[in-house]
Design a protein that fits this description.
Layout: H1 5-19, H2 25-35, H3 40-44, E1 58-62, E2 67-73, H4 83-98, H5 109-120, E3 127-134, H6 145-155, H7 158-165, E4 170-177, E5 183-189, E6 194-196, E7 203-206, E8 212-219, H8 220-230, H9 248-262, H10 269-274, E9 278-281, E10 284-288, E11 291-295, E12 298-301, H11 303-315, H12 320-323, E13 333-340, H13 344-356, H14 370-383, E14 386-388, H15 393-396, H16 399-404, E15 412-414, H17 415-425, H18 429-432, H19 435-440, H20 442-448, H21 458-467, H22 471-480, H23 493-506, H24 510-517, H25 525-546, H26 552-557, H27 567-581
Parallel strand pairs: 2-3, 3-4, 9-13, 14-15
Antiparallel strand pairs: 1-2, 4-5, 6-11, 7-8, 8-13, 9-12, 10-11
Helix pairs in contact: 1-2, 4-6, 8-11, 9-11, 17-23, 21-23, 23-25, 23-27, 25-27
Length: 589
C-alpha cells in the first residue's frame, strides 16, 4: 500500500483536535485502516497518541485467523530507528502485556486496551505477530547486525507468551515496508528453547536489583545439547566465535576428554576440578521434577569447552567406547553459574567480567556493545566492508554468506585498529601505545567509541584507517629528509599517523581521494604516492618548525625521543599546521 505525505497530513488535520498527538502518529492509523479494511474510528482506537508506549504503537486482532498483531510504526525510510523500540519492547513492553507484574501507572492508555483484549481473546489467539512498519526497504533489516541482535533478544521473551496463553503460541517478528511492500528480518519462533541442565543441587545468590544466580555442576552433554539445537545463537552473547582447534586451551580440553572417555586414564570427576567452569544467562530458571530447567539460555563464558566437547563427540562417534555407551560421558561435569532475571546491560557486564579472568584481549570484551554493532552496520551498508568486532568472525563466514550480507570487500576492518584510527584522528598519541588501557578504562573507551562516530563520513574513516598500512614507508620518507635532523622518526609512527590524518582531511584533493580510494581497503599505488607527497609538502615542514620551538629544541639538542609520543608535541605540530597551511581541526565524528 502507498501512504503519501498528503494522506498523512489530511488524517492529522481531520482528527488532531480530538485525538491530539503528532503528525507521525497518524501513519499507524492509515496503515491499519488499509491493511485490515478497518473503518477510521476503529483504526483510531487501535493506535497510540503520546508517549510511554513501551515499543507498542498499535494492535489488531484477526478473529478469522487467530492472529494477534502488535505494531511499531516509523514514518521514515530508516530501519535503524527501530533500535530503541526493540529495546523497550524487550525490556518492558512484553512483560507489561503478558506478565502478571504490576502495570506501570504512567503507561500509555492503549496498553490497557491491548491487555484487556488479550484477556478476552486468550482462548482464540493462535499466533502473535510483531510488525515493525516503516516506508523504507525492509530487507535492510536482514543485513543489520544491530537489529538482528535486538530482535533475537525480543524473541527470547517468547516464554512470556507461553505462560500467558498456557500453551505454545507462535511468535513472528517482521519488518514491513508500506511503500515497497518488502518484508525483512522475518523470524518465526514456534517454540522457546527450554532444557534440563542436570543441575540437581545448587546454591543461589541474589543480585542488587532482583538478579538471581544459581551455582552448581552440569554435564557437558547438557551444554552440547543446547549448542547442537541452538547453533550459533547459543553463543550470541559471547565475546568471540570458537578459537581454532590447535590453540592451547582447546588442546588441553581435548586431551582431558581423551584421557577420561577413551583411555580411562582419569576419573571423570577430575574434569570439574581442572576446569574453570562456564557461565550461562537464561530468560527463565525453574526447578522442576528434581532438576533445574532453563529457558532461552545463552553462553556468556566457556565457548571453547562446549565446542571442543561437541567436536570430540562427533569425531569419535564411532569409537566403541563412545558408541556402546561404556564411557561415563554423563559423569563429565563442569561448574556452572546460571544468571537470570537480569537486564541486558547487567548481562553485558557479567560477560565482560567473566572473560577478564581468561587470556582475552580487552577489546574482545567490547565486541557486543551496541556501538560496535552499529558501526558494523554502517561499514556494511555504506561501503560493503566487514567490521570484525568479534575475533575470527570474518573467517567463519563463507563467500556466499558474505555476499548475502552485501559484503563486497575481501579485507575487513578490525576493532582495535579502528580504535587506533579514532585516537590518531584526535591526536591522542600518548594513548595509542596503551591501547589495552583505552579499552579497560570506561571513560577512555566511551570517548573513542562515542555515538557521534556514527555521524562521521565513513569514507574519511577508511582513508585514515589505511594510513597505518604504509607507516613504515612513510617514516622512512621523513628520515630521508635528514636522518640526523629527524633521528626521532622511528619513534614517531603514531605522531605521523595522527598528523597525516589531519593532512588528509585538510587536503584540497580530499574529495578526489574519497572517490578513488575510500571504497575498499586495498593500498593503491596512487594512494601511497599521495601520502608520500603529504609527508614531503606538509609533515616534514611542520616537524622542522615544531622541533625548533621550545621546549622541544632543547629535547632535540639532548638527543631525546620520548617527546614525539606526547600530546604536547602533537598540539605544537597541529598549531604549526594551522598557521602555516590554514588547517582546521577535523574529527571523525
Amino acid at each position: 500500500m502507498t501512504i503519501s505525505e498528503h494522506d498523512l497530513k489530511q488524517a492529522y488535520s481531520d482528527h488532531n483536535a480530538d485525538r491530539h498527538g503528532l503528525l507521525e502518529d497518524y501513519y499507524g492509523v492509515l496503515y491499519l485502516e488499509r491493511a485490515f479494511s478497518l473503518n477510521r474510528e476503529d483504526a483510531l482506537s487501535r493506535v497510540t497518541f503520546g508517549g510511554n508506549d513501551y515499543g507498542i504503537d498499535g494492535y489488531h486482532f484477526d478473529a478469522a485467523t487467530g492472529n494477534f498483531y502488535l505494531f511499531q510504526f516509523k514514518w521514515s525510510k530508516n530501519v535503524a530507528l527501530f533500535r530503541d523500540s526493540l529495546k523497550r519492547l524487550t525490556e518492558n513492553g512484553l512483560s507489561q502485556l503478558f506478565a502478571s507484574a504490576v502495570a506501570d501507572q504512567r503507561r500509555n492508555a492503549l496498553l490497557d486496551y491491548v491487555r484487556s483484549e488479550l484477556d478476552e481473546k486468550r482462548s482464540l489467539v493462535r499466533k502473535v505477530l510483531i510488525h515493525f512498519v516503516f516506508n523504507g526497504d525492509a530487507t535492510e533489516a536482514d543485513r543489520s547486525a544491530t537489529l538482528e541482535h535486538l530482535r533475537e533478544n525480543l524473541e527470547s521473551k517468547k516464554y512470556l507468551l507461553n505462560e500467558f496463553f498456557g500453551s505454545e503460541v507462535d511468535l513472528t517478528v517482521e519488518f514491513r515496508s508500506s511503500a515497497t511492500k518488502t518484508v525483512g528480518g522475518r523470524a518465526k519462533v514456534t517454540t522457546s528453547h527450554t532444557y534440563d541442565v542436570g543441575m540437581k543441587t545448587y546454591i543461589t545468590q541474589n543480585g542488587p536489583n532482583g538478579e538471581v544466580m544459581h551455582v552448581g555442576f552440569v554435564p557437558l552433554l547438557a551444554l552440547r545439547e543446547m549448542f547442537t539445537s541452538m547453533g550459533g545463537r547459543f553463543f550470541e552473547r559471547n565475546i568471540r566465535f570458537a578459537l581454532a582447534e590447535g590453540t592451547a586451551p582447546n588442546r588441553a580440553i581435548a586431551k582431558a576428554l581423551k584421557d577420561i572417555l577413551l583411555e580411562g586414564k582419569q576419573d571423570p570427576a577430575t574434569f570439574a576440578f581442572n576446569h574453570n567452569g562456564i557461565t550461562l544467562h537464561a530468560e527463565r530458571v525453574v526447578f522442576h521434577d528434581g532438576n533445574l530447567k532453563v529457558t532461552e539460555p545463552r553462553l556468556l563464558n566457556g565457548a571453547q569447552s562446549v565446542t571442543t566437547f561437541a567436536k570430540f563427540m562427533e569425531r569419535f562417534a564411532d569409537n566403541p567406547s563412545i558408541k556402546k555407551g561404556t564411557a561415563p560421558v554423563n559423569e563429565v561435569l563442569v561448574l556452572a553459574r546460571i544468571v537470570s532475571q537480569s537486564a541486558d546491560e547487567f548481562v553485558t557486564t557479567v560477560t565482560l567480567n567473566n572473560n577478564r579472568q581468561n587470556p582475552v584481549q580487552p577489546w574482545a570484551l567490547r565486541a557486543n556493545d551496541l556501538i560496535q554493532l552499529q558501526l558494523a552496520d554502517q561499514f556494511r551498508t555504506e561501503l560493503g566492508i566487514f567490521y570484525q568486532r568479534q575475533e575470527n568472525a570474518f573467517e567463519s563466514f563463507t563467500v556466499e554468506q558474505l555476499e548475502e550480507m552485501e559484503i563486497t570487500n575481501q579485507r575487513f576492518i578490525e576493532l582495535q585498529r579502528l580504535a587506533l584510527t579514532f585516537l590518531a584522528s584526535e591526536g591522542h598519541v600518548e594513548r595509542m601505545s596503551k591501547l589495552k588501557e583505552v579499552f579497560e578504562n570506561d571513560n577512555y573507551y566511551r570517548e573513542v567509541f562515542d555515538a557521534r562516530r556514527l555521524k562521521a563520513n565513513f569514507r574519511h574513516i577508511v582513508l585514515c584507517y589505511k594510513i597505518r598500512q604504509r607507516l613504515n614507508t612513510l617514516v622512512r620518507e621523513i628520515e630521508s629528509a635528514g636522518s640526523i635532523k629527524y633521528y626521532f622518526a622511528g619513534r614517531a609512527r603514531n605522531l605521523v599517523w595522527a598528523l597525516l590524518c589531519q593532512a588528509v582531511l585538510n587536503d584540497p584533493k580530499l574529495d578526489s581521494a574519497v572517490d578513488r580510494y575510500s571504497d575498499n581497503l586495498t593500498i593503491e599505488v596512487n594512494f601511497s604516492e599521495w601520502l608520500r607527497e603529504l609527508i614531503r609538502r606538509r609533515i616534514v615542514p611542520i616537524l622542522r618548525e615544531a622541533i625548533e620551538s621550545p621546549p622541544f629544541a632543547a629535547y632535540v639538542a639532548e638527543g631525546k625521543e620520548d617527546f614525539v609520543r606526547t600530546r604536547a608535541f602533537y598540539d605544537r605540530c597541529l598549531d604549526v599546521g594551522m598557521d602555516k597551511f590554514n588547517w582546521v581541526k577535523k574529527y571523525l565524528r
